[in-house]
From TrEMBL:
Residues 110-332 form the Heat-inducible transcription repressor HrcA C-terminal domain. Residues 248-275 form a coiled coil. Gene3D superfamilies: 3.30.450.40, Winged helix-like DNA-binding domain superfamily/Winged helix DNA-binding domain. InterPro entries: GAF-like_dom_sf, HrcA, HrcA_C, WH-like_DNA-bd_sf, WH_DNA-bd_sf. It comes from Sphingobium cyanobacteriorum. Belongs to the HrcA family. It comes from the Bacteria. This is Heat-inducible transcription repressor HrcA. Negative regulator of class I heat shock genes (grpE-dnaK-dnaJ and groELS operons). Prevents heat-shock induction of these operons. Keywords: Coiled coil, Repressor, Stress response, Transcription, Transcription regulation. The gene is hrcA.
Length: 347
């Protein structure tokens, strides 16, 4: 998308454009020349303003809805405003206290991230989203519970007390005795290791033939580790809070767009792919409307900021999803402050 440089607009065009955008972001309604002419600081007649607005429309920065003579910013116009004209407002002391208070420091990190997302959602009146950092569980115990002749429930117990289950397809001829033997072997050999470490240890033992298992049991151990490792790599780890904020009065006027957005929020893998784009940088990223294919139909914006772990590396992303008509000057610094607060928590 080609955006007109702000330097190519004269002072009059910049002033009119700013008023249109700020009014639209505040009300969600197109802005007419008569409304703009009442702003004393501009000192322009309605006719002069109409001419300027026509020029801005020809540049692709403003558009006129079919039902109104007023103008509203296009996505291109919003991008120009955000990148070149917006004056960001730092979060108020009250907002900062709410964000810091909403992030619990004790308990699982997922609880802190969920609380931060809910607080951010409430303050911004958008849906809050956070990508949870991948954490490899430290293993304590494995178990296999037979379900039928060809399936068993693989049970993993972490050192932190977490318990997760997966259904595992069994090779033919596996008996309950083999399941028990494999589980005991895995618990004894891999307790205290991560899944990656356990996989590497098993590969070394098999290569050196230092294993005390027959072929069927070895295959079972390998399958057990593989199902957990594959799950850890592929499972979307995403928390979404505050979807109800997206069904405001503006959304009620366009129920189809609201429905599309809520459906898009159900596709967590797609949102996760979008947020991965924010992992590469160190600054807050803003995606406006069709700049991202995922939200092109619903006309939504995403503001996302990376947060860091104890070693200073980016480990996740926190942000909001809302209509393109949101208060960027207020919400962008709020998202950035939430990311900074999470980074302090992770140290």
């Amino acid at each position: 998308m080609s955006v007109t440089p702000i330097s190519e607009l004269n002072d009059r065009a910049r002033d009119v454009f700013r008023v249109v955008v700020e009014s639209y972001l505040g009300t969600g309604l197109p802005v007419g020349s008569r409304t703009i002419s009442k702003i004393a600081s501009l000192s322009l007649s309605p006719a002069s303003i109409r001419n300027v607005m026509q020029d801005l429309e020809e540049l692709g920065l403003l558009a006129a809805p079919h039902t109104s003579a007023g103008r509203m910013p296009t996505e291109t116009g919003l991008r120009l405003f955000v990148d070149g004209m917006m004056q960001a407002a730092e979060p108020s002391a009250e907002e900062r206290r709410a964000i810091e208070a909403g992030i619990v420091e004790s308990g699982p990190i997922e609880d802190a991230l969920s609380a931060a997302t809910a607080t951010l959602s409430g303050l911004s009146a958008c849906a809050g989203i956070v990508m949870v950092p991948k954490r490899e569980p430290v293993l304590r115990q494995f178990g296999f519970v037979p379900l039928n002749a060809r399936q068993a429930l693989a049970v993993l117990v972490g050192q932190d007390g977490s318990v997760e289950n997966r259904v595992l397809d069994l090779p033919e001829g596996v008996s309950p005795v083999m399941l028990n033997e494999a589980a005991n072997f895995m618990s004894a050999r891999f307790g205290g290791m991560t899944l990656r470490q356990a996989g590497e240890a098993l590969a070394r033992e098999m290569e050196m033939e230092r294993h005390a298992l027959d072929h069927s049991a070895r295959d079972l151990v390998a399958r057990g580790l593989a199902i957990w490792s594959h799950d850890a790599d592929d499972r979307p780890v995403l928390i979404v809070r505050g979807q109800s904020h997206l069904l405001d009065d503006g959304a009620a006027a366009d129920l189809e767009r609201a429905r599309q957005l809520l459906e898009q929020l159900e596709g967590k893998q797609e949102i996760l792919d979008l947020l991965r784009g924010a992992l590469a940088g160190s600054a807050t990223k803003i995606f406006i409307g069709s700049e991202n294919k995922l939200f092109s139909l619903s006309g939504s914006s995403v503001i996302a900021a990376p947060y860091r772990g104890a070693d200073g590396r980016v480990v996740g992303v926190v942000g909001v999803i809302g209509p393109t008509r949101l208060n960027y000057a207020r919400v962008i610094p709020m998202v950035d402050f939430t990311a900074q607060t999470l980074s302090r928590l992770m140290r």
